[in-house]
Automatic annotation (TrEMBL):
<feature type="transmembrane region" description="Helical">
    <location>
        <begin position="386"/>
        <end position="407"/>
    </location>
</feature>
<feature type="transmembrane region" description="Helical">
    <location>
        <begin position="99"/>
        <end position="120"/>
    </location>
</feature>
<dbReference type="GO" id="GO:0016020">
    <property type="term" value="C:membrane"/>
</dbReference>
<dbReference type="InterPro" id="IPR041489">
    <property type="entry name" value="PDZ_6"/>
</dbReference>
<dbReference type="InterPro" id="IPR036034">
    <property type="entry name" value="PDZ_sf"/>
</dbReference>
<keyword id="KW-1133">Transmembrane helix</keyword>
<keyword id="KW-0645">Protease</keyword>
<dbReference type="GO" id="GO:0004222">
    <property type="term" value="F:metalloendopeptidase activity"/>
</dbReference>
<dbReference type="Pfam" id="PF02163">
    <property type="entry name" value="Peptidase_M50"/>
</dbReference>
<keyword id="KW-0812">Transmembrane</keyword>
<dbReference type="InterPro" id="IPR008915">
    <property type="entry name" value="Peptidase_M50"/>
</dbReference>
<dbReference type="GO" id="GO:0006508">
    <property type="term" value="P:proteolysis"/>
</dbReference>
<dbReference type="InterPro" id="IPR004387">
    <property type="entry name" value="Pept_M50_Zn"/>
</dbReference>
<keyword id="KW-0378">Hydrolase</keyword>
<protein>
    <submittedName>
        <fullName>RIP metalloprotease RseP</fullName>
    </submittedName>
</protein>
<dbReference type="Pfam" id="PF17820">
    <property type="entry name" value="PDZ_6"/>
</dbReference>
<keyword id="KW-0472">Membrane</keyword>
C-alpha cells in the first residue's frame, strides 16, 4: 500500500510540474500581450472547463501532461482571427518569444532549485567530500555500524525471520567502534578489515577495537556466509566469515546549511548536476542496446534511462522504505533533466522554436549588412519531415524505456 501511495504521489508531482511548465508559457505570453486561447491539464476528452476572458481553462481525462495554446506561434498557423494579427506570437520581438518559449524550462529549474534550497536548510545536501566509489569507501577508517542480522546466502535483501543475529552485536560491540585488529592482524581501513575477516576461518575470533578513545578486545563468533570475491562482485561464491557489521563513514554524507549559505550550496550542487545531466544525455544512444537487452530478458543496467513510469515506480520504492530524501532528490533530478532536455534545439521542443527565432534574427542581420533583402520567416512546413523524424525517434525511445520499466524495472531496495 505504501508503495502504491508513493507511485501515485510521485506521478502527481510530475503532473503538477508539467502543468506549471505550461503555466510558465501562458503567463509570460499574456504578460507580453500575446493571445492565449486555451490552458488545459491533461489530454483527451474534456472533463471540466471554464472560460475567463479570452482563455479557456480546464482538465482533460488523460492526466499525462498539459498544454496551452498561444495564437500564431508560427507564420504558417491559421488560428489567427481577424483583428488579432498584431498579437500573433511570431510577430513579437525575438527576445520576447525566447522568454515565452524558455519559461517552461525555467519553471522546471525553479522547482528543482527551490526543492534543493529547502533540502539544504532542513536535511542537508550531499557532501562533495563524502566517499562515492567502492574504493573510496574501502579507504574509510574501519568504524562500524551494527547490522541487525547476517544474510547467509549471497543476496541483497533485508533481514528476515530466521536469519542469524549479528555476531558483532552479540559480542557487545557498539555503533561507532573502530576496529584495529582481528586475530592479532592489524587493520586501519574498512577495506583491510573486510580482507582480514574474509580470510579468517568462521568461528571464535578476537577483535581489537577503540571506543571513546579507549582500547578494548572482544571475542566474536564469526558467522559462515556465502560471498563472491571482493575483487569480483559477480564471481563465484564461497564460504567466508562475516562479523555482521556495516561501514559507518566518518565523513558526513550530508551537510546542512543556513538560509544564506544554502544559496551557494544549491548553486554548487546544481553545477555538478548540470555536468552529470550533460554526460547522461551524451550516453543515451549508447544505452539503447542495454534497454533492449533488459526487455528481452537480460539484466537491467542501473545506468539505463528511465521513463516517467520508472521514475514513479522508484518514487513508490522510496516511500515504501521511508526514504523521503531519495524521493525528493529524484523529483529534483527529473525536473532538472526535463528542463535541459526541453531546451535542445530540435522541433517540436521549445528549444527548437527558440533556435529558429534566433536563426531568423541572425540571418536578417547578415542580409542587411550585405545589402540583400530580408529573406523573411522560416517556413515551418518545410521542416515538418525533420520534426516528424524527431517525434518518431522520441516515441520509439519512450516506448523502449516504458516497456523496460514495466517488464524489468530498476529496483533500488532489496525485496
Amino acid at each position: 500500500m505504501a508503495n502504491l501511495l508513493g507511485v501515485i504521489l510521485f506521478a502527481v508531482f510530475i503532473l503538477v510540474s508539467v502543468s506549471l511548465h505550461e503555466a510558465g508559457h501562458m503567463l509570460t505570453a499574456k504578460a507580453f500581450g500575446m493571445k492565449v486561447t486555451r490552458y488545459f491539464v491533461g489530454f483527451g476528452p474534456t472533463l471540466w472547463s471554464f472560460k475567463r476572458g479570452e482563455t479557456e481553462y480546464g482538465v482533460k481525462g488523460i492526466p499525462l501532461g498539459g498544454f496551452c495554446k498561444i495564437v500564431g506561434m508560427t507564420p504558417q498557423d491559421d488560428d489567427v482571427e481577424p483583428g488579432d494579427e498584431k498579437r500573433a506570437m511570431w510577430r513579437y520581438p525575438v527576445w520576447k518569444r525566447t522568454i515565452v518559449m524558455s519559461a517552461g524550462s525555467i519553471t522546471h529549474f525553479a522547482l528543482a532549485l527551490g526543492a534543493l534550497w529547502i533540502m539544504a536548510v532542513s536535511v542537508g545536501l550531499p557532501n562533495p567530500k563524502a566517499p562515492t566509489t567502492t574504493e573510496a569507501f574501502k579507504a574509510e577508517p574501519a568504524v562500524i555500524a551494527l547490522a541487525p542480522c547476517v544474510v547467509v546466502e549471497n543476496a541483497n535483501r533485508a533481514c528476515q525471520a530466521g536469519d542469524p543475529a549479528s555476531p558483532a552485536a552479540k559480542a557487545q560491540l557498539k555503533e561507532g567502534d573502530r576496529i584495529t585488529a582481528v586475530n592479532g592482524k592489524p587493520v586501519s581501513t574498512w577495506g583491510q578489515m573486510l580482507d582480514v575477516v574474509r580470510g579468517t576461518t568462521p568461528g571464535l575470533a578476537t577483535v581489537d577495537y577503540v571506543r571513546d578513545g579507549k582500547a578494548a578486545t572482544a571475542t566474536v563468533d564469526l558467522a559462515a556466509v556465502q560471498r563472491p570475491p571482493l575483487t569480483d562482485p559477480k564471481g563465484a561464491t564461497s564460504a567466508v566469515a562475516a562479523m555482521g557489521v556495516a561501514l559507518r563513514p566518518t565523513t558526513p554524507q550530508y551537510i546542512e546549511y543556513g538560509p544564506i549559505d544554502a544559496f551557494g550550496a544549491t548553486a554548487d550542487f546544481t553545477g555538478s548536476m548540470a555536468v552529470q545531466t550533460a554526460h547522461a544525455m551524451q550516453r543515451i544512444p549508447q544505452k539503447v542496446p542495454a534497454l533492449w537487452n533488459a526487455i528481452t530478458g537480460g539484466e537491467r543496467d542501473m545506468d539505463t534511462p528511465i521513463s516517467v513510469v520508472g521514475a514513479s515506480r522508484l518514487g513508490g520504492e522510496f516511500v515504501a522504505n521511508d526514504a523521503w530524501y531519495g524521493f525528493f532528490m529524484l523529483f529534483v533530478s527529473l525536473n532538472f533533466f526535463i528542463g535541459v532536455f526541453n531546451l535542445l534545439p530540435l522541433l517540436p521542443l521549445d528549444g527548437g522554436h527558440i533556435a529558429i527565432s534566433w536563426f531568423e534574427r541572425a540571418r536578417s542581420w547578415l542580409y542587411a549588412r550585405i545589402g540583400r533583402a530580408d529573406p523573411g520567416r522560416v517556413d515551418y512546413l518545410k521542416l515538418m519531415p525533420i520534426t516528424y523524424a524527431v517525434i518518431l525517434i522520441g516515441g520509439v525511445f519512450t516506448l523502449l524505456t516504458v516497456t523496460a520499466d514495466v517488464v524489468n524495472p530498476i529496483t533500488l531496495f532489496p525485496r
